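Now for a chain:

_____
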Amino acid sequence: MQILREKKILFIVLVLLAGMAYRDWSLRDIEYPPGVLVSELPKQTDVRDPAPVMMDDYELTARADFKIRARVLSRENYSWGSEADLSPVDLALGWGVMSDQAVLDRIEISQGSRWYHTRYQLPAPISDREIIQNSGNMHMIPADNWVRKKLKGRESRGYCLAARKTGGH
């Protein structure tokens, strides 16, 4: 009886370790060879006469049609806070020189409090202006639960939105 109990405990521990190893593996940084991975710029066009759409307690109004192909530089998940129910994920995205592994190897990228930050040792790999023009922090608003679960791809199409909470806090 004691041996059976110990085997069950060992099995549970092994399953937990395997789950933790898979999670760490799936969240690993992906490295590419040097060179620009995404050369095209994001495309944004104004939306004429947008009609507001309700999503739970938020009124969303499209400001621009937006299409981007970019490299994910960093991801920050939010599960609490006033906007986490609307936008549970922020992605720091890069294109042009900010999708080049040789540049990114010399820049530290972090996220927090709905902002993204860059740090590097001098001399800078590229100018601050190039960093700003070739990267951005996107507050992702998934269209539905399926999109919420799949929010991982490099290419995205949607809208640049203005969001206003209509009720509650």
About this structure: Residues 1-30 form one domain. The beta strands are 43-46, 53-55, 58-69, 71-77, 89-94, 107-112, 115-120, 135-140, 155-165. The helical segments are 2-26, 101-104, 128-133, 145-150. The mean pLDDT is 81.
